[in-house]
Every structure is written in C-alpha cells, then in structure tokens.
Amino acid sequence: MDAEKIIxxxxxxxxxxxxxxxxxxxxxxxxxxxxxxxxxxDAAFADNxxxxxxxxxxxxxxxxxxxxxxxxxVPLHLLEETDIGKSSKKEIRSLxxxxxxxxxxxxxxxxxxxKNYD
Length: 118
What we know:
By secondary structure, the protein is mostly helical. Helix content is 75%, strand content 0%. The chain has helices at 10-16, 20-46, 50-66, 70-80, 89-115. The relative contact order is 0.19.
C-alpha cells in the first residue's frame, strides 16, 4: 500500500450521496478509463499535438477532481495551460512523468477503496 493517501472521496460521496450503486459505477469508470487517458496524453505529446494534450489533460483533471486527487490536479492544470513556445519539452516530459506516477498511485488507492463496495 502507498505510504501517503492522495485520494479524498468526500466530493464523490457528496455527489452520489448514499447511492452505493452510483459510487461503484463512478469508481469503475475511473478504473476503466484512466489508464487510457494517461496513455492518450503521452501519445498526444509524442505526436506534438498540444491541443489534444490539453483536452485530454482537462478531461483527466475533471476525473481527478471528483476523487479529490489534489496532487494530480496541479500538474494536469499546468499541462492544460501549456504554451509550447514557453515550455520546454523537458518541462512537459517531467509533468507527464509526474502525472503518470500520481495516477498510478491514485489508481491503486481507488482500487482498494472499490473492494469496500463489493
């Protein structure tokens, strides 16, 4: 298990209330879609498609917000606001690496929480 908890399900619980089925559905969607979203962000960068990178970062940021993953929201916001003329590829690569690491941590933690809803 990860040493530091980076998720906070209060927002999700506020949205879903006591509807356990809805909570499970949202968690399952996150677990299903998030790995592909991170891969799509990486692919957009590799293809030098900054507009697509920004769109995908925004989408993942919305998911991260629902799960209270504040540490992930910051680098996603920076990617979303990326100006390729002012940001070096090295800086963007560093943000992408951080996003992947934080997403993997959040994924593991959310997967653990999901077990509580079975």
